[in-house]
Amino acid sequence: MAVMExxxxxxxxxxxxxxxxxxxxxxxxxxxxxxxxxxxxxxxxVLMVMFSNDxxxxxxxxxxxxxxxxxxxxxAHHLPQALAVLREHPLAKGDLYQGDLLSAVLxxxxxxxxxxxxxxxxxxxxxxxLVDLPVDIRREAExxxxxxxxxx
Length: 152
Known about the structure:
The protein is an alpha+beta fold. Helices cover 39% and strands 25% of the residues. Helix 1 (62-70) packs across helix 2 (75-88), helix 1 runs parallel beside helix 3 and helix 2 (75-88) runs parallel beside helix 5. The protein has one domain (3-146).
């Protein structure tokens, strides 16, 4: 097991310090989450490999991802990160409400999903496994699942 000791990270929410430790083999999508050791809020960690020996770590909040996705800022970059979070925390909360990241992802234009059918397929798997969703998110999920983004 190749474990990376990344030192401490500073929570974007409260400024608290949390140790970084993860198994590189488990960083499938190069995105993982940690709970802040001080405030307990979810932190999204994005592992970036620039060159073969150059590994960096970018810290985002669920809110950072939600805003970037709602503003259609680099969907090819942010949607895979958001889906990695949603696989582990389907109702991850940014600054608005429980599930606001899922809502942002579900309401992207059909063209986004047409350009990324693999991501659309991953989102269908995540959404299909969810039960007892809040009413508004359930409607968004039903619309997404009923759209033309089906497997062929």
